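Quick one:
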Amino acid sequence: MIAVESLTVVYPGRPPRRALQDLTLRIPPGVTLVRGPAGAGKSTLLRVLATLLVPDRGQVRYPWPECGPWGDMGPWHLPRLRTRIGYVPQDGRLDLSLTVEGGLEYLAALRGAPGEAVAALLARWELWPVRKRRLRELSAGELRRWLLAQSQLAAPDLWVLDEPSQGLDAPGMVTLRRELTGYLQAARSGRAVYAVVATHDDRLDDLATATVWLDGGRLRLDGPPGEGRPG
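Output:
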């Protein structure tokens, strides 16, 4: 389990905005969908899970003994923790002058990913035919596929996805479902692997091990009427 304990995140402003409010939950291995209205705290939770945002209070405890909790501990364990995490934001900021292949090769070297990972991901996400194109030359669907591909360079044990199907084309949706199914099957076989997905897309519902409903930065225990309960 990934244990989220009393997470509070406050964004500055007049007045300050509490994006997460004393949030406590358990995330089981497999695929967890995070749902809720705009402003519910979904993206904030994902950024904390991905170690990109330090909470004002609380912590996240991961199931890997060599990695300490994220939140109120020092940064000593952060590099090794991040090798286990892949993250796709809702809106990525990219150097669009890079080529599809060159961008993956650069990130692979940066993250210490094996050299063969690039070719495998180009094939898996059907990007091989456009590998020499610059990112600015891709269609919206191809660019979204590239963002998803780069997040898998290190074969992450925790795959954190913020609205991954937004702007995704049909080939990408097929691959996304296949990859999430892989996490589901690995978890069922006893591996501590996790995909946490903030999404409004009901095409992923059948892959969910659990569903977490957020509203106003808090856990909503009932969920919308007729749409299930949080896991």
